[in-house]
């Protein structure tokens, strides 16, 4: 089933963690812990970053010259590094922000594959579409509730998800209407 967690995970996976952390550093030097908190507050409502991901990303950015260590503080635990973005990092973020994202047409979706496999195996593809439609509607209700109680950022994230789910629903309806024709083509 398509859940909110899966959808939000796709959004987070699609965005560049490296560039997001670099962008957060443009506001001033920060420790890895502070970067994680800022990321989670702005972008990680449903999928917060793991500390290991923050520090491995910062190590790569450091190695690539996009950040530098701005200071090291000794404490009770391990030393805390404070990172600052370099000029090369600022340029990299600016280029990333200016580059349009490639639209993902989802030409070979999992839903389509399931429908075809159901038809090929003699299973009830209409029931599969009905079950998926119900799950989409459940998630849309949940996102609509979340949107009504959220701040502007949460509303925009929910709108993005809702528009994609609406497109999926239109596809489900169209596929259900063409199911007999698809079944005969698949079996031919």
Automatic annotation (TrEMBL):
Superkingdom, natural source: Bacteria
Residue span, Transcription regulator PadR N-terminal domain: 21-91
Pfam families assigned: PadR (PF03551)
Keywords: Membrane, Transmembrane, Transmembrane helix
Residues spanning the membrane: 6-25
InterPro entries given in the database record: Tscrpt_reg_PadR_N, WH-like_DNA-bd_sf, WH_DNA-bd_sf
PANTHER family: NEGATIVE TRANSCRIPTION REGULATOR PADR, TRANSCRIPTIONAL REGULATOR YQJI
Protein name (Swiss-Prot/TrEMBL): PadR family transcriptional regulator
Protein source organism: Streptomyces sodiiphilus
